[in-house]
Design goal:
Structural class: alpha/beta
Helix content: 25-40%
CATH architecture: 3-Layer(aba) Sandwich
Order of helices and strands: HEEHEHHEHEHEHEH
C-alpha cells in the first residue's frame, strides 16, 4: 500500500473528526469571540444569503488585522472548528511543542515555503490534506494579499486561493471587511471598542479543469485572481 501524507501521524488528524479537547476549546473560543463581536466590537453582517449551503468553500477577504479570521468565522455562524488555515510547515509543524499544541487548538494545514528541504512537503501534499479536511464539511480561510495591508488599499492578490479553488473544485467566497484595522490595529496589543462591517459577496464557482491543459489552467487562475481582487475592491468601495 502506498504511503501518503494522510498516513503521516503529524498531519493525519486533519482527515479525522476533531478530538473532544479541540471541541471544548472551540466552544470556549466561540463563546469569547461571539461575545466580543456582539457587544464590544459590534459586527454588522451583509450578504449572509451568499454563503454556500451545499458545499465547502474557501473564504477570502482583504486583510488588515488579526481580527479578520474571527470576523470571517463569526459571520457564518458555523463555529471556529469548521475552518482551517494554511500555515508554514517550517514554523508551525517542525517544532514538536508547536505541533502538539496547535493540533489540539487550531486547524492548521501545512504548506512548505521551501520545497527543496529535506522534510518539505510539496503542493500536492497540501492539496491532499486540504481536500481531506474539507471532505468533513469544513472550510478554509485564505488571505490573497499574503500579509496585512493598509486599510482600503488592497495589495496585489496572489494566485493561491484560485489555484486551490480550481484544484479542489470548491467555490471561493469573497468578502470585504472594514473596521477591524481600527478595533485592533497593527502593532497594538489590545482591541478597542468600535464597529466592524463585513460584506459577504456572491461565491465564485470554478470551471471544470479536468480537460484543461496546464497553460489553460494557469491562464484561468491568473484571470480569476484579477477578477477576485476587483470584486473585493468593489465591495470595499461600497462600504466606505
Amino acid at each position: 500500500m502506498k504511503f501518503t501524507i494522510l498516513d503521516d501521524p503529524r498531519y493525519n488528524h486533519l482527515a479525522k473528526p476533531r478530538t473532544v479537547l479541540f471541541q471544548i476549546f472551540s466552544f470556549l473560543f466561540d463563546l469569547y469571540a461571539n461575545s466580543m463581536l456582539l457587544f464590544y466590537a459590534r459586527v454588522k453582517i451583509i450578504g449572509k444569503e451568499n454563503i454556500p449551503k451545499d458545499t465547502p468553500f474557501i473564504f477570502v477577504s482583504n486583510h488588515n488585522s488579526h481580527m479578520d479570521i474571527a470576523v470571517l468565522a463569526f459571520s457564518t455562524k458555523m463555529g471556529y472548528e469548521k475552518f482551517g488555515f494554511l500555515a508554514a510547515k517550517d514554523y508551525w509543524f517542525d517544532n514538536s511543542f508547536n505541533r502538539i499544541f496547535f493540533k489540539n487548538f487550531i486547524n492548521l494545514i501545512p504548506i512548505s515555503r521551501n520545497t527543496s528541504g529535506k522534510d518539505s512537503i510539496d503542493i500536492e501534499d497540501t492539496f491532499l490534506l486540504t481536500k481531506a479536511f474539507m471532505s468533513l464539511n469544513n472550510n478554509i480561510i485564505m488571505f490573497p494579499e499574503g500579509s496585512r495591508g493598509e486599510a482600503g488599499q488592497l495589495q496585489r492578490f496572489r494566485k493561491g486561493a484560485m489555484r486551490f479553488s480550481l484544484g479542489l473544485n470548491v467555490p471561493i467566497l469573497p468578502a470585504a471587511i472594514v473596521g477591524t484595522e481600527k478595533v485592533w490595529p497593527k502593532g497594538e496589543w489590545f482591541m478597542k471598542p468600535g464597529k466592524i462591517t463585513i460584506k459577504i459577496l456572491p461565491p465564485i464557482y470554478p470551471k471544470d479543469s479536468s480537460k484543461m491543459s496546464e497553460q489553460e489552467i494557469n491562464k484561468e487562475i491568473s484571470s480569476k485572481t484579477i477578477e477576485l481582487q476587483e470584486i473585493v475592491q468593489q465591495g470595499l468601495a461600497e462600504l466606505t
